[in-house]
């Protein structure tokens, strides 16, 4: 039976009652209060083995008294709750020394698990974390369950140098997350350097990454510093890592293993101290099967995998996002805009193939082109119904069925090998590519309910669970 004394602080009496009952049933001794002053008195008197507190208290904000608690009793774990549910809330909780951040509403079983883990860990003096300067703008927007998981993971990663692999569709904000990891992390005083592998000619990638010496190749008239050298002491963001050619992958792997590199044409090894964050919109496991990506490099980069959900999996964030983009557009000199509820409903029903980037572009277009202050549903209908200008002939048609779309995709895929053939194992690779979006779409449609999704798909529930595990599909439960 677990033991420990838990101090609970929340000005909502109903929440205190629920927490008291849940913690008591779990075997903990509980004292609760509705104000920060009483909580501080208990802590200063040496009471409690763990604190659970809301951020907004009637007499003081938790972020103001949390540093005092950590200074007086650095081994006392503090769990912070908040209904604000923003990226900055999670970051402030982490940087002020909170053991864990929980967005409201939260699962009581999860809370009990966190309490047990916190009390079971050995006590040690926490190192002092520097306080960040207040930022003028919030880098990440959204309060959906999917984004809350992202915020909590980012908060845990801020004070580490772990390599992170960010996956997600184009337009989901992979570079934004990478910049947040740098700007709010321990390397914030260093340089953030981004390089897009897909935008650099294959024969220049090694020179871009590692630099070159004068005379290393035709046109190298002087020494040039590479991105590793530019990012020394900071963060190197390798975007579209799936497009890196195999030769460069081999050199990158050597750098990650040995912590040093040589410039193109150079002979002296150079020590490097950078944090690596990689990103891709491709399935690297499929590229590994196709012989296009090194498996050992994948494991070196995939230390902490972080999947950014597409906008269609977090439609509840659209009101916050569109408001944020309107505010940004207004700061840039465009007219202020509001949007009616019916228009928001239209936005939530759209599939957003371009994700958050597409929504941001729409917001700027609405602010620039429409004279009315309030954007109506009719305006949104007109914008979303417009076909893309000069669409390429190989783009999918609206009336195209799945079979035709797959055939068109495979024709283009085979064409990429010219007179050759793709690597063996094509049948299973194609099935995997189809299975992942099919299962994901079914889980999104059923709001993460695996029983309903299995029924919708016509498969056994255990089969669905195995597929979710094998395909590494993230399941987000949302309320209707």
Automatic annotation (TrEMBL):
Q: Which UniProt keywords apply?
A: Activator, ATP-binding, Cytoplasm, DNA-binding, Nitrogen fixation, Nucleotide-binding, Phosphoprotein, Repressor, Transcription, Transcription regulation, Two-component regulatory system
| Modification 4-aspartylphosphate occurs at | 54
Q: One biological-process term from Gene Ontology?
A: regulation of DNA-templated transcription
Role of this protein: Member of the two-component regulatory system NtrB/NtrC, which controls expression of the nitrogen-regulated (ntr) genes in response to nitrogen limitation. Phosphorylated NtrC binds directly to DNA and stimulates the formation of open promoter-sigma54-RNA polymerase complexes.
Its recorded name reads DNA-binding transcriptional regulator NtrC
**One Gene Ontology term, aspect cellular component:** cytoplasm
Entry-linked InterPro entries: AAA+_ATPase, AAA_lid_NorR, CheY-like_superfamily, Homeodomain-like_sf, HTH_Fis, P-loop_NTPase, Sig_transdc_resp-reg_receiver, Sigma_54_int
All copies of the Response regulatory domain together span 5-119
Q: Where in the cell is it found?
A: Cytoplasm
One Pfam family this sequence matches: AAA_lid_14
Entries under CDD domains matching the protein: AAA (cd00009), REC_RcNtrC-like (cd19928)
């Amino acid at each position: 039976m677990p033991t420990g004394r838990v101090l609970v602080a929340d000005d909502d009496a109903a929440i205190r009652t629920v927490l008291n009952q849940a913690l008591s049933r779990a075997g903990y001794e509980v004292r609760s209060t509705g104000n920060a002053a009483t909580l501080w008195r208990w802590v200063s008197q040496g009471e409690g083995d763990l604190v659970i507190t809301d951020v907004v208290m009637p007499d003081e904000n938790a972020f103001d008294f949390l540093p005092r608690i950590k200074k007086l009793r650095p081994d006392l774990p503090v769990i912070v709750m908040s209904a604000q549910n923003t990226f900055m809330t999670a970051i402030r909780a982490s940087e002020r020394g909170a053991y864990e951040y929980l967005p409201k509403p939260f699962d009581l079983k999860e809370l009990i698990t966190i309490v047990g883990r916190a009390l079971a860990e050995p006590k040690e003096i926490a190192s002092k974390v520097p306080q960040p300067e207040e930022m003028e703008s919030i880098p990440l927007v959204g309060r959906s369950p999917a984004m809350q998981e992202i915020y909590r993971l980012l908060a845990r990663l801020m004070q580490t140098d772990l390599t992170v692999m960010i996956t997600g569709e184009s337009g989901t904000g992979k570079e934004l997350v990478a910049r947040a990891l740098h700007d709010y992390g321990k390397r914030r005083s260093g340089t953030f350097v981004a390089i897009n592998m897909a935008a650099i000619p294959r024969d220049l990638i090694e020179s871009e990454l590692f630099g070159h010496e004068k005379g290393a190749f035709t046109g190298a008239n002087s020494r040039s510093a590479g991105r590793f050298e530019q990012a020394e002491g900071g963060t190197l963001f390798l975007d579209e890592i799936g497009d890196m050619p195999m030769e460069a992958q081999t050199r990158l792997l050597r750098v990650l293993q040995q912590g040093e590199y040589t410039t193109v044409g150079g002979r002296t090894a150079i020590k490097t101290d950078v944090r690596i964050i990689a990103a891709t919109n491709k399935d690297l496991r499929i590229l590994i099967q196709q012989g296009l990506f090194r498996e050992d490099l994948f494991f070196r980069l995939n230390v902490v995998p972080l999947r950014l959900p597409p906008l269609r999996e977090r439609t509840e964030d659209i009101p916050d996002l569109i408001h944020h983009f309107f505010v940004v557009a207004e700061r840039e000199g465009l007219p202020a805009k509001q949007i009616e509820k019916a228009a928001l409903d239209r936005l939530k029903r759209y599939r957003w193939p371009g994700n958050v980037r597409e929504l941001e572009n729409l917001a700027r277009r609405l602010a620039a082109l429409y004279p009315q202050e309030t954007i109506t549903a009719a305006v949104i209908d007109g914008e979303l119904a417009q076909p893309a200008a000069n669409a390429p002939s190989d783009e999918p048609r609206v009336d195209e069925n799945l079979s035709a779309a797959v055939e068109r995709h495979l024709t283009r895929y085979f064409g990429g090998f010219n007179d050759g053939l793709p690597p063996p194992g094509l049948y299973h690779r194609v099935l995997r590519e189809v299975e992942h979006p099919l299962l994901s779409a079914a889980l999104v449609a059923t709001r993460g309910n695996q029983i309903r999704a299995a029924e919708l798909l016509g498969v056994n529930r255990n089969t669905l669970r195995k597929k979710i595990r094998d395909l590494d599909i993230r399941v987000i439960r949302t309320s209707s």
